Fold this sequence. Notes:
- The structure holds two protein chains of two kinds.
- Chain A is elongated.
- Chain A has twelve helices and no strands.
- In chain A, helix 1 packs across helix 2, helix 2 (20-43) packs across helix 3 and helix 6 (103-127) runs antiparallel to helix 7.
- The longest helix of chain A is centred in the C-terminal third of the chain and has 30 residues, at 245-274.
- By secondary structure, chain A is an all-alpha fold.
- Chain A starts with a helix and ends with a helix.
- By secondary structure, chain B is an alpha+beta fold.
- In chain B, 57% of the residues lie in helices and 17% in strands.
- Chain B has four helices and three strands, in the order αβααββα.
- Chain B is globular, with a radius of gyration of 16 Å.
- The two termini of chain B are 28 Å apart.
- Chains A and B meet through helix 2, helix 4 and helix 12 of A and helix 2, helix 3 and strand 3 of B.
Amino acid sequence: MSAPLDLCAWLRTATRGLPRAIKAVVYEELSAHYQDAFDEQRADGLNAADAHRAALAQLGDARETAHALREIHLAQRHYVLALGASLASLLWVVMGAFFTSAAMLTIVAVFWLFVMLRSFRRLIEARLDAPNVRLPIAMIEVCTLLTIVLAFVADQNPIDYPSVLVVIDPFILPYQQLWEQSLTPIHILLAATVGLIGLGWLLLGERLMGQDARLFQLGTLLIGAMTVTGLGLIGSALSVLLRNVTALQTLVLVVVIAGTARQALFVLLFFRAAYPQRDRKARA
Amino acid sequence: MNLKGSLPLLILYVLSRGSSHGYQIAKAIKQQSEGVLDFKEGTLYPTLHNLEQQGMIASFEQEENGRTRRYYRLTQDGSAMLERQLTEWTRYTSAVNTILKGGAAT
């Protein structure tokens, strides 16, 4: 009687934390696997207890299996959340042009950006041969937060600012006010953090080179949008330091267009990641 | 031997020769490698499910000896991926072999 109980415990551990529907499928699949292994051990002459032990040993550590299964199946939930965040960000980009947002909305926009970036990292690590994207994503995240803090210190009204810019163009436009002020160390730091965000996007694009097929055929377009955004942000930070208003205005436009395109591509990417079945049927 | 990196390639290769369920795939890999590529079979399923989510393989259910089994088959995208990975693998092993042979000669 102990053998089936052990198997149940193993299966319960291996499927712990999975969504109910998936749990049932995996439970059945692993039970069948165990049964095949058990039958084969019996056919090789082992008694029932030894065959059971051998079949369970063949399956390995239930917790390791559970961890790996959760990584695969719960990732879908993250992609759905990221789809929502990237869609909200994209809508914000469109709507934000017409509104000056409240502090809370700016914080929400930063939250969306972070959810999106974290899920993107997860997707990269799950689908690609582990290119290291932690550094560029951390650069974008940390420098976005620093930009907000520095802009606040520099009195550029970062909180009461259209949060569209948090997502695609972190505080380039406030720089235009700098024409009326002297360039303080805070402003130089602000330009540096925006430049580093640009560098982060550039690096992220570079690390995804040659991965178009594994990013739902969107890799090339995403790399293009990230590269243009990155160069635009770096260029605009330099324009601020050099006080070249014509260059700054042109680059702001470039970053807004490329940033909007990048957000739209993220929406498509997370849709395809969250609903792979629908995507496959559509392609068929 | 650590199989983690090459397990998806091996699964795609086994499935290129016909639909199989998890146990058959595990057995094929172990038998054909004459026991060199040994792994805990529970870890096969996360890899199978990941490949399915990526559209490289598709699953279907089939009755077998009164039991419902989940079989996997290669998709078109999976075939293309297998071809690419085989080419990469051949280039990689050939480069390593060249170095090792050179190292042995010196």
